[in-house]
Amino acid sequence: MRDHRDALDALILKHGGIVLRGFPLVASEDFGAVTECFPAYSGNYQGGAAARRSVAKGVYEATQRTGDQTIPIHQELFYLHDYPARIAFFARKVAEEGGETIIADMRKVTAAMPAGIRDKLETLGIENIRNFAAKTGSKEQNRLMDKRGWDFAFYTESEKEVEEVCARQQLRPHWHDDGSLTVFNLEDAFVAHPQTGETVYRGGVHIAHFFRGSYDNTGQAAALREQQEYPSGAFLGDGNELPEDEDKAFQQVVDRFTYSWKWRDGDVMILDNLLTGHGRNPFSGDRATEVALLD
Length: 295
Fold this sequence. Notes:
By secondary structure, this protein is of the alpha+beta class. It has helices spanning 5-15, 28-35, 106-112, 115-124, 150-154, 159-168, 208-214, 220-227, 244-256; strands at residues 17-20, 54-56, 59-61, 71-74, 86-93, 97-98, 101-105, 126-132, 172-175, 181-187, 190-192, 199-201, 233-236, 258-259, 268-272, 276-280, 283-284, 288-294. It has a domain at 5-41 and 62-107 and 255-294: Double-stranded beta-helix (4-Layer Sandwich).
């Protein structure tokens, strides 16, 4: 990996990512040895939408959502000001059925975006709102995103430290009387790639249906959102969502440039986190996928 870094970097930049297959990678530590060949992301998952447990140095478990749930296409930490330039995935054990890590070409998504949607996003930006439950003392992933305690999401039991993280990430925290937390931030919808200079969409407006609760087929997530003072989601900068027809058109553009293939144990994928979005198909059986954040 070290000997061929220049070639790998060029391929990642050209294609948005690479997949390495057929190498003797079995354990989390093997994956960690690969990712150590690249610069590590200076941040971590504090304040992330899906709190993750560390399984090896610089290696985290992937989002532990139940197998019946689809994880839609997104760029890692799209709702934060600071985000990793790259993200790497390791298929330590593929599921018996489904569970593929899917990807989408965000350059093509940006180019094919309807002009009306692009104009709104360029003018208004994106307002991200996320909710966390009061401190729970639990490190178990809850089926409902917004039921995770802020102590799990921020890896601390200190409100002061949470506020320090928010300040670094340009988040505005709002503490509720019951001890729960809502964070807000306003982001540009398009980002210039630091190496190529090309403008690429970065955000979660296209997955508004996910925030409304489509990821949970029990209806509990949608009901919880109805009760929230500030519902979680990625909105236009004026607080509104796209009209239904534009929302559907945006989803169709992302779907058009989304790709999936059958994974094998030991596969490693390294993505440019701006140029390529990722997600996950539903699955059955045991699945162990790990991630690392890179610069």
